[in-house]
Amino acid sequence: MFAAAIITGICLISVFVSYLAFRRGFTRSADDYFIAGSSLGYFVLIFSMLASFLSAFCMFGMSSLGYRTGFGSLFVLTVNLIPLGYLWYFMHRKTFILGRARKWMSMGAPFGERYGDGMRVIIPMVVLVASIPYLVAQVQGIGVMIETMSAETIPYKLGLFFVPAFIALYLMMGGMKGAAWVNTVQGIFFTVMIFVLFFAVMNKNGGFGPTMDRVFEKHPELFQLGAKEGKVWSYSMVFGFAAAMSLGCVCFPQPYMHAYSSRSAKGFKAMILAFGGICLVVISMPIMIGIASRIIVPPLEGVQADTVYGLVASQTLPNWLAALAVAGGFTAAMSTVNGMVFGNATNMANDLYKLLKPKAQAKELVAFARVSVASIMAICVVIAWNPDTPVAELSVIAFGTAAVIIFPLWGAYYWQRATRFGAIAGTLVGAGMNLAFLVIGFIRGKNMVLSPQPFLLKLNGFLVSFIVAGIVFFVVSLLTQPGPTEKKSLALFFHPSLDE
Amino acid sequence: MKKRSSAWKRRVFIIAFLVLTFLCWCPLLYGSYGPADRILGVPSWAVLAAFFGLVLFVLEWIYLFVSGMTTTDEDLPDIVSDLAAVDTDQSDSPKEDG
């Protein structure tokens, strides 16, 4: 009952915060609704960006991954994200500046202006396809959490409906400003709860050092690289996970939306720098909570391990505090769904609908985005109906698929010879290969996207798709001639005032 | 002269970023398969990875906020007005109601 009250309370507070944005008139124009009128300060930007990426994956998925595979998980969402400080700057400095000058509001806008309408359509489609597994992972995580928190009083399938309905409501109402405010509140809450649980778990066995000593005695493989005969955390596996997550972060909608929404250059730079540093501290904790749980909770296998966070909370904290700790994961999942769904809905309205109806009024675009929010949520609930893939793996697959967009993005800003044919071919081949590996792996009962494959020179499917996407982009660009759109776009994308 | 020294500084930063990124993405140069030494209960390769991450973070902070090589709020209005004046015939902004 207490757990159900907490969940309902969080949902109601989120709706209220979004309602404040709505009441203050932050959703009247398209500019306000989609990019908060470029008015977000650095504090809201940092926490909104953080919360929109860190999700059920970072708490439930990462504690599960730590529990199952050990310290190698640190290369999935902590230290590997530090390079985003400069990667985001190099890849999105022009997104930030040109976005202000050209009034961009979606991901497809830079690709459309640089490569033409073909890329403007393909980008939102690929990002949506890549986002679905990630969103499903969140919705799935929310369902599992509600079931765990309520001691199965609220079944998984009922939980799937309950929370997404609230999320859709406050996104449709408050737009980007509402989403950013909700994300900030939720981000602060789940960060505090991670710290609380971390210290409780470590205290249970006399502190951090003694806890790790006890885990080491029983499960030394969790402290190794190349455990299980080189299959777990081999160098190629580490590199594959680290690169997929980091490069995927560059290519998802959140950095675009937050770059457009930033009030200042200082805020933009503070946001991209802080992200990796905060992840290093905050996400290391769920991993170590998961590792320490090996000596606290009974053995768990596969998808079951996704419940380790809730189980260890219930064994180390008083009931009310355990419920709040799990609710932290719940808000993390909600905030990521906010960011991803809103980003995709923005793309669909401004790239797809706007292309079909070039004279669409702002009101029409906002209405279409609101319908898109509800539709995407509904699709995710349907797919999450039968949870059978661990949350962490689902999320990495999503990031890996999105990462192939980095080549046309780089070409748009830094390579004058890039052509629309190269951009389209590279994106479709890369995303197509990722999906093919996912489907073939599913049929064969193996995870080909993430696990190194002998027939792929011991690389995983993501890395092979990524490398091939890059080669295709460069080769096709060199074999084809830039068309009128590409030639004309050079005046804007390579304007001397953009040089540093 | 100033531009040339800035180009050199930028190259040094980029090389340092790339080397440290490799170290943050793969423990090939400082971690080996099998049992590892531990520092404060944590495998030594994990401590080293976190250390390299910390060094990269500090370097990024210097590059973004101290080096004077990145876009600032003082530069922004002029750059934006220059770019807004570029004619591409692909105006993207939706018309506001009213």
Please outline what is shown here.
The complex is a heterodimer of chains A (500) and B (98). With 500 residues, chain A is an all-alpha fold.
Write structural notes for this entry.
The model of chain A has no long low-confidence stretch (mean pLDDT 87). Chain A is globular. Chain A has one domain (2-387): Up-down Bundle (Sodium/glucose cotransporter), CATH 1.20.1730. Chain A is mostly helical. Chain A is 76% helix and 0% strand. Chain A starts with a helix and ends in a 7-residue tail after the last helix. Chain B is mainly α. Chain B has one domain (2-84). Chain B is 57% helix and 4% strand. Chain B is built from three helices and two strands; from the N terminus they run αββαα. Chain B has helices at 2-25, 44-66, 76-84; strands at 38-39, 42-43. Chain B has a two-stranded antiparallel ribbon. In chain B, β1 (38-39) and β2 (42-43) form a beta hairpin. In chain B, α1 (2-25) runs antiparallel to α2. The longest helix of chain B is centred in the first third of the chain and has 24 residues, at 2-25. The interface between A and B is large, with 71 and 60 residues.
Structural class of chain A: mainly alpha
Q: Which strands sit side by side, in order, in the main sheet of chain B?
A: 1-2
Catalogue the unreliable spans of chain A: none
Tally of separate domains of chain A = 1
Number of domains of chain B: 1
What is the CATH H-level superfamily of chain A?
Sodium/glucose cotransporter
Give the N-to-C terminal Cα separation of chain B.
Answer: 53 Å
Tally the beta strands of chain A.
Answer: 0
Biggest interface pair, residues each? A-B, 71 and 60 residues
Strand content of chain A: under 5%
CATH topology of chain A: Sodium/glucose cotransporter
Count the E strands of chain B. 2
CATH class value of chain A: Mainly Alpha
Overall pLDDT of chain B, averaged?
86
Secondary structure topology:
The complex is a heterodimer of chains A (500) and B (98).
Chain A: H1 2-23, H2 30-35, H3 42-53, H4 56-69, H5 74-77, H6 84-102, H7 108-115, H8 117-149, H9 156-204, H10 208-218, H11 227-230, H12 235-251, H13 253-261, H14 265-292, H15 308-316, H16 319-356, H17 362-383, H18 391-402, H19 406-414, H20 420-444, H21 461-479, H22 484-493
Helix pairs in contact in A: 1-9, 1-16, 3-9, 3-13, 3-14, 3-16, 4-14, 4-16, 4-18, 6-12, 6-13, 6-14, 7-8, 8-9, 8-16, 8-17, 8-18, 8-20, 9-14, 9-16, 9-17, 12-18, 15-16, 16-17, 18-20, 20-21
Chain B: H1 2-25, E1 38-39, E2 42-43, H2 44-66, H3 76-84
Antiparallel strand pairs in B: 1-2
Helix pairs in contact in B: 1-2
